[in-house]
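Researcher: Here's a chain I'd like modeled. Treat it as a single chain, no partners, no ligands.
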Amino acid sequence: MLTLIYFILILGLIVLVHEFGHFIFSKLFGVYVYEFSIGMGPRLFGTKKQKGKTQYNVRAFPIGGFVALAGEDATEVDPEVPKGGYLYDKPVWQRAIIMGAGVFNNFLLAAILLFFIGLFYGSMIMTPTITSLDESFPMYQAGIREGDKFISINGNKVSNIDDARVYLALENDGSETEFIIERNGKKETFKVTPVEVKDEKTKETSYKYGITFEKKYEHGFVPAIKYTISQFGSYLKQIFITFKYLFTGRVGFENLSGPVGIYSVVGEVAKENALVNLANLTVLLCVNVGFLNILPFPAFDGGRILFLIIEKIKGSPVNPKIENAINTGGFIFLMGLIILITINDVIKLF
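Model: Modeled as a single isolated chain. Structure tokens:
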């Protein structure tokens, strides 16, 4: 039950913050807002609907919220809307800001949470330095030692501890891996083949190098700022890396997760240091949601911004019927993808 509450709070917060970005800039630029709601589904309570005024509602299902703007459909005409109050009445640059404000809010929330994690819990030192090795595993046997710092893995530059973990996972197919490490100011190259290990409980096999990164922290205001910048950039880089490996086939469709997969992760991270782990998960999801929404794909905010760029270049709006058809097609594709990912998540549970 507690996992469900955490799940609702996290996803609800992320969506609500996103929608509030669209709302606040719509108001700032004079776009008429029909409704701003916290939650989805049937209306529980809120302000009365009045001509010329925004209706504020709280709805039954606490999963985020939504904002309804006048003129999202370029063919809309409504006598309730004051002159110049449609979204399509506004200059391209204002519409672009309104569309991008949700992503900005997601990134802003992620940065704020990271800063407070660093300030109150401690800022993790991101240097990719090896802290311990198992002498019975290939890394130690190849000559790599504690205190060595990763420079690259299979030609992929390693800037921080997250990079090292990601590449150790994604480049690990059981074949020989090339490591460039820094020791005493000098670079050295090692080639290591991981060993196959079978989990006695799950019976699953994996490849291990026998390496550990110990988490070390520093405290203070300045370290918290540095940690916020470093960790935020690291999360963005991880998304780029994952997309690269998806498109090249190195990461399969089965590795993607949807709502059910996120729900499972929430349950796991809440078992220990719940507050900090849930805050970190919220940051990671915020960055992911922001990144995905800014992609120039139909139905995403980035797709709408792309149409605005096209409008600016050609000097006139894209045909509304064509734009609506493309956005509808993109939305149907996304819904289908989410359903497939959710089915995959359910299969993983069993």
